Amino acid sequence: MGLLTFFLDLVVFVGIFGILALSLNLEFGFTGLANFGKVAFFLLGAYTYALLSQIGIPFYLCLGLGALVSALFGLLISLPALRLRTDYLAIVILAFGEILRYVVRAENIGGWRGMVHIPPVFTWTGSLLTYRLENVGLVFVCLLVFFAIAQLLANSPYGRVIRAIREDEVAAEALGKNRAKYKAQILMLGSAMAGVAGGLYAQYQECVTPGMFIPMVTFTVWIMVIVGGPANNWGVLLGAALVMLFDRGANIAKDYLTLPVDPHNLQYILFGVLIILVLFYRPGGLLKESQVKTKASEIARYARDTDNNKRS
Questions:
Q1: CB contact at 8 A, 242 and 277
Q2: Per the domain annotation, does 72 fall within a domain?
Q3: Helices 128-154 and 179-205 meet at what angle, rounded to 10?
Q4: Cα–Cα distance measured from residue 30 to residue 153, given in angstroms and rounded to the nearest whole number
C-alpha cells in the first residue's frame, strides 16, 4: 500500500507540473519568451485559491478566479516587459516573482509567515488511497483540457504565427503580425495555466507558504521543457514525468537506502546529470519539435514530396 500511495502521489505531481510545463512550452518553446518567473503565477493561483477557499467559495470558482488573477498579472507584467530584449525580459519576470514572494511573506497573509490552511476538496474517507485517486482524477482532467488547448494552438494558423515570431520577429512584423499583441496573449494564457496548476497544488497540499514558491520551482519546470523537447507538448509531459520521478524518488529513497548525500542535494545532482546527458546526446530534447499540422502545411508537404519524387 505504501508504494502504491507513493506512486499515486507521484502521478498527481506529474499532472500539476505537466500543466506548468505546457504553459512554459507555449511561452518559450513556441513563442521564444524566456519566462524565468513562472513560479510567480504559480504562487498567485495557489494563494488566490487558498484565500477564496477560506470563505467557502466552490473549488471550481477558486480555480477559475486563480487563473483569472494570474492572467491579469501576466498581462500587466507583459506591457512594459515586452518592450525589452529577451534576456532583460527574463530578468524582469524573475525579479517580479521574487518581489511577489517576499510581499506575501512580509504581509503575513493567512497567518504565520504567510501560511494558509486550505479545506480539502474531497471529503476525507479515512482511506489515503481513495484520497490520492480522487486527486489523480481531478488533476488529470485539468491536464487533458490544457493539453488539448496547447495542441490546438500549436496546429493552427495562430501556432504558425507564434513560431514565426520566435524565429524572426522583424520578418513576422513585416508580414503584418503584431508581435507585442501575440506575446501578451501567450503570456496571459501561460499565466492562467500556471494559476490553475497553483490552485491544484494548494488544494492537494492543503496549505501554502511562501517557501513553497522559490525560484528553483521555475528552474525545475525549465528542466522539464529542455529535457522533454521545446515546442513539443508530448515531449514536455515526458520531461515532467522524468523530472518528477527523480524529484519524488529521491525523497522516498532515503527510507529504503542509505544515501551518501542529502536527498535534496541528490535531486540537484540527478537534474544536473540529466541535463548534461540530454544536451550532449539530444540537444533538441528527447522528442524533437512537432510539425505544424494544418491543411496548408499538409498541402505544402505533399507538394514538396511530389516534387522530390518527380526529380528522383
A1: no
A2: yes
A3: 170
A4: 10
Phi then psi dihedrals of residue 287, to 5 deg: -120, 130
Supply 308's cell numbers: 522530390
| Alpha carbons 105 and 67: distance in angstroms, whole number | 21
What is the separation of C-alpha 298 from the centre of its chain, rounded to a whole number of angstroms? 30
197-213 core/surface letters (b: 16 or more CB in 10 A; e: else): bbbbbbbbeeebbbebb
In a domain, 252, yes or no: no
Domain count, the chain: 1
Whether 94 maps to a domain, the answer reads yes
Domain that holds residue 207: 2-223
* Local confidence pLDDT in tens for the 312 residues of the chain: 577 888 899 999 999 999 999 999 999 999 999 899 999 999 999 999 998 998 889 999 999 999 999 999 999 888 876 666 777 778 888 898 888 888 887 766 655 555 677 888 887 777 888 889 999 999 999 999 999 999 999 999 999 999 999 998 889 888 889 888 999 999 999 999 999 999 999 999 988 888 899 999 999 999 999 999 999 999 999 999 999 998 887 777 666 666 667 766 777 888 888 888 998 889 889 998 987 766 666 665 656 666 666 666
- CA–CA separation, 119 vs 117, rounded Å? 7
Whether residue 244 is contained in a domain is answered as no
How large is the angle between the packed helices 86-107 and 59-81, nearest 10 degrees?
A: 130
From residue 118, alpha-carbon distances to 18, 128, 193, 231, 274 in Å are 23, 18, 21, 35, 35
DSSP letter at 155 equals T
First to last CA, the chain: 61
Rounded Cα distance between 161 and 139, Å, is 30
CA distance 236 to 90: 20
C-alpha cell read off for 68: 483569472
pTM recorded for the entire structure: 0.90
